[in-house]
Design a protein that fits this description.
Layout: H1 2-7, H2 29-49, E1 57-63, H3 70-88, E2 97-104, H4 110-115, E3 124-129, E4 142-148, H5 181-205, E5 206-218, H6 229-247, H7 252-256, H8 267-277, E6 280-287, H9 299-319, H10 324-337, H11 339-342, E7 348-356
Length: about 350
């Protein structure tokens, strides 16, 4: 099994590390608000749906943790709710310790993560490098898996979309959402395969009665991919790169060979994946209320800063560092120019809580 796991290769595109002005740590306000909004539903799920044989140590895994601070808020909330659950049941004494596994790709800035760990934390912390599309933990070892705003990343770009001889070649675009039906199907297939791997791996790792808690940037059921606000942000980025290609700042061939491995799922697609897997029951599938973040900066500034924190690494890897400032300046301008179009898009964040059931 260990050899099988280590032989698999996954694309890794970590968020910006460190704590500088363009870091993920300083530009993940929106993701933090989603965690806050989901908190009440998540607590309810833990209190009512977690059904495990207790041991002295409780094991929590946060998948796609990045560099903080959002992962620490989530973990602390889970820990406090688990304590409350067993205190209510008169079993508090059965939990003596908590172990938290922080997972992300090996290229993640784990140094920043560990430097930022809360000093007063009441758990043991471990870093676990690796893709969550594969096995990460021993059989039946985890009680709660949490994954927030990370499952939209695919394990890889579908091969066909960068193959110039394929009918799914995504020439002139960097994403599937405003592309041909062939490209869309290639991304849909990749997402389906990745979710199969994700759920299969978690089914082996989570104890019976344990939970997977997912917060997902998605699109409403039935909404065309091109009308998803999350997808529109990537369409604008692709448009900026094509503008730069027309000016000669980047080569058009470079743009043609660049695709972002990200897919915006609908609740129905997740439900279908869970049903195909057959190892989990869906305890909660709920749309989260939309919340505005702040009025101190414009929407275009917020979009540009958040997208740069998440995408700078993958752009730099493909195009080099020299274009970064110009690209995201263009992107902010593009968002301002297309604000009315962007507002016509459909936005959705949803919470899914899955419980491991007997085979």
């Amino acid at each position: 099994m260990a050899e099988e796991i280590s032989s698999k290769v996954f694309e890794a595109h970590p968020m910006n590390g460190g704590d500088g002005p363009n870091s993920y740590a300083k530009n993940s306000i929106y993701q933090r608000r989603v965690v806050d909004i989901a908190k009440e539903l998540m607590n309810k799920a833990i209190l009512e749906k977690l059904d495990i044989d207790m041991s002295n140590t409780f094991y929590i895994a946060d998948l796609g943790c990045s560099v903080g601070p959002n992962t620490f808020y989530s973990v602390e909330n889970i820990l406090e709710t688990v304590r409350s659950k067993y205190q209510i049941q008169g079993q508090k004494s059965q939990i003596s310790e908590f172990q938290v596994f922080f997972n992300d790709h090996a290229e993640n800035d784990f140094n920043m993560l560990f430097k930022s760990l809360p000093q007063n934390r009441q758990y043991f912390a471990v870093g676990v490098p690796g893709s969550f599309h594969d096995r990460l933990f021993p059989n039946a070892s985890i009680h709660i898996v949490h994954c927030s705003y990370a499952i939209q990343w695919l394990s890889r770009v579908p091969e066909a979309v960068v193959d110039s001889s394929s009918s799914a070649w995504n020439k002139g675009r960097i994403h599937y959402s405003n592309s041909t039906d062939e490209v869309i199907r290639a991304y849909e297939t990749q997402c389906s395969e990745d979710m199969e791997c994700f759920l299969h791996s978690r089914a082996q790792e989570i104890v019976y009665g344990g939970l997977i808690i997912l917060t997902i940037p998605g699109r409403p059921d039935g909404t065309p991919h091109s009308l998803s606000q999350a997808n529109m942000t990537l369409q604008f980025l692709g448009s900026c790169l094509m503008d730069m290609a027309e000016k000669g700042d980047v080569s058009e061939e470079k743009v043609d060979s660049f695709n972002i491995p990200m897919y915006t799922m609908s609740p129905q697609e997740l439900k279908a994946a869970v049903e195909r897997n057959g190892c989990f029951s869906i305890e909660i599938m709920s749309e989260l209320p939309h919340q505005s973040i702040t009025n101190t900066i414009s929407l275009s500034q917020l979009l540009a800063s958040h997208l740069r924190a998440g995408m700078e690494g993958i752009v730099k890897q493909h195009f080099g560092e020299d274009i970064i400032d110009e690209l995201f300046d263009l992107y902010q301008n593009k968002c301002e120019e297309n604000a009315s179009i962007f507002k016509l898009g459909k936005s959705l964040s949803f919470l899914a809580v899955l419980r491991r059931i007997a085979d």
